[in-house]
Every structure is written in C-alpha cells, then in structure tokens.
Design goal:
Layout (H helix, E strand, L loop, with lengths): L14 H12 L5 H8 L3 H13 L3 E8 L7 E9 L2 H13 L3 E8 L4 E7 L2 H12 L4 E15 L29 H12 L5 H8 L3 H13 L3 E8 L7 E9 L3 H13 L3 E9 L3 E7 L2 H14 L4 E15 L4 H5 L2
Antiparallel strand pairs: 1-6, 2-4, 2-5, 3-4, 3-10, 5-8, 7-9, 7-10, 8-9
Helix pairs in contact: 1-2, 2-3, 7-8
C-alpha cells in the first residue's frame, strides 16, 4: 500500500484510463495484452496510457502482498515522538537502511513517526528497535503488534468514477508457518519490491529456470504466502489523502464484532488491522478532504460510542518506505 509520495499535480483520467487502472489494481502482474482485451484497446494504447500514469507519478511502483506470518515473522508498528527535526531526519536515514524496517511514515500529531519492523520474536524486535533508536531522544513511544489484517485495499470502489471494480477484500490469511527455503524467500522479496518482474527476469536474477519460478510462484499462492499483486499509488495525484486512527476499545464482544465488520467493509477505509498493545486497531482512512475525513471519524464515534474508549488521529505527511516484506525476511531461512 503506497500512502503518500512526492507531491504532483492532479492527473485527469478519462474512462479508458480508469478501466486500465481498475485492472492494474486487481492484478498489476497480468500481461498488458490481457488488459488490452478487457479494456477493448490495443496493447500499444494500454502501454502508452500506463506510461503516462507513471510519468505523472500516479503509479510509483508495484508490490506483492506477502503473508509474513507464514514465514515465521511478526509485524511490530512503533509510533514515536522525537524531540527535534534533526533526530527525525537521523531516524529516517537509519530506517531506510535497516533490513528490519518495511515501512516508515511521517505524521502531524502526537506521534510524528510510524515505523514498521518485522521480526521473528519480541526479543528480535527489541534488538532491531534499540539499534534503530540508539542515542535518539524520544519524548514518548508505543508499540503495537499486528494480530490480523481486517481490510487491505489499493483504491476502494467509490473512488472509481468509471468501471467500478468488484468488491474483493484481501485480508492476509492466518495460515500456518510453511517450510520455505532461501530461494522461496528470495523470490518473495523480489516481487515484494517489484511485482511486475517477469518470470524470466526473476529466473535470471535467482539463477533458476523459468519453469521453476512459475512452479514456485504457484506453490506460494496456493499456500497463502502470496496474497496479491498491486500497484503502488500516489493518492495525492488523484486528490486523495490518507490519515491514520488508533482505536482503543472496551471489552464488549458483540460490539467489537460489529466494529470489525465495519472496518472490513467501509469504503473509506484503506487498511485496518487488529493489534495488541496500547491500542487495539490501526486504521488508514482515505478521503477527498479533511471535512470528509471528519465525517468518517464522526460516524465511527456515533456508531460505536459504547465500544470505543479512546482514539488518536494522525495526519499523514510523507511516506519514505513501504513494502509488504522487510529485507531481513527474505535474507534469513
């Protein structure tokens, strides 16, 4: 999920562009010839329009969604408030270089940094976090451990003015740990960084045959390791913004079930996860503007006033890093 990228002027898309984008959102790895057939355009036209989206910074890359729990890893999200801009810049530098960090987002709000760290255990996470924060002065921080993903979308259907995609939710499966070798992990890491790599290019990079790559990909999809191939979007180009909300709830099982159903199905929610820690849920909300964001927050507060104990709003400023698989996951067997 790409949250924010370098600011660009809004791009005006026509109905054909939106149809192409719909197909890319559903599977960016599918051949351009297949998209051409679905959109009733020539392959050259699809290729040209896709290049325009890339040049206007709408599509900034591609990612494979990886179920890291099947690889024996957990995801820890740290929200921190640093003392100075200089220390924030130092943390950014370290996070970009760290093989444990898969995501880094800068916010305006109580916490100005969100860092996602992938580790096999709490002890390993603590070592990675201590190394990341060494000699940095932190006013406050909190750590949330991801338990399950409730919703994980690229661009919800209401934001497509034409050719609305079918509502297909992509929760990460709660699968068991799989016996994968180093080659499987290297293959997953390559696609996590660029989901459009052809089987031939992956085969050349990993010194495998094309048929071996195809077989391993099929195995990884069937096992629930590979969840989806998606574009990384710069939502700012579409005039959209992403902001985060941390929710703490009261232990009311029936109401919590209704809240989770809301988080799974509401079309203003881009990503939502159940967590363990100071807060019980992380929610990324996508809206056209702040008034619309306020409407969503007001709806949640009104609809679930008995279950929500407290919440924290974080306004996203810039995303420096986002992948569904940290490099350390692909490097260790």
């Amino acid at each position: 999920m790409q949250v924010l990228a370098q600011k660009s002027p809004e791009l005006k898309l026509d109905a054909k562009d939106w149809h192409i984008l719909k197909e890319l959102v559903q599977n960016i790895r599918q051949p351009l010839s297949q998209i051409a057939r679905k959109t009733q355009l020539s392959r050259q036209t699809v290729e040209y329009r896709l290049r325009q989206m890339q040049q206007h910074n709408l599509i900034t890359g591609s990612r494979a969604v990886i179920n890291i729990r099947s690889l024996g890893y957990k995801s820890f999200h740290v929200f921190a408030e640093l003392h100075t801009v200089q220390q924030e810049q130092e943390l950014i530098r370290r996070a970009l270089e760290s093989p444990w960090v898969n995501a880094l987002i800068i916010y305006s709000g109580k916490y100005n940094v969100e860092v996602s760290i992938m580790a096999r255990s709490e002890e390993e996470f603590l070592l990675a976090y201590q190394k990341l924060m060494e000699e940095l002065s932190i006013r406050s921080d909190l750590t949330l451990t991801l338990l399950s993903t409730l919703r994980n979308e690229v661009l919800p259907a209401p934001y497509f003015p034409h050719h609305k995609p079918e509502e297909r939710l992509h929760p990460v499966p709660a699968s068991v740990q799989l016996p994968l070798d180093k080659t499987d992990r290297s293959l997953l890491l390559a696609l996590a960084e660029d989901a459009t790599l052809s089987n031939l290019k992956v085969a050349q990079r990993l010194h495998l045959s094309k048929d071996t790559v195809a077989y391993r990909l099929q195995k990884l999809v069937k096992a629930g390791c590979l969840v989806q191939y998606r574009p990384a979007l710069n939502y700012d180009v579409l005039g959209l913004s992403i902001n985060s909300v941390l929710l703490k709830v009261n232990p009311l099982p029936s109401q919590i079930a209704k809240l989770e159903q809301f988080l799974r199905t509401n079309n203003r929610i881009l990503w939502a996860a159940k967590t363990f820690g100071a807060y019980d849920y992380i929610v990324y909300i996508i809206t056209n503007d702040l008034p619309e964001f306020h409407e969503v927050i007001s709806l949640v507060k009104e609809k679930f006033q008995n279950v929500i104990r407290t919440y924290e709003v974080l306004f996203a400023y810039k995303e420096y890093k986002y992948s569904f698989m940290a490099k350390v996951v692909g490097q260790k067997g």
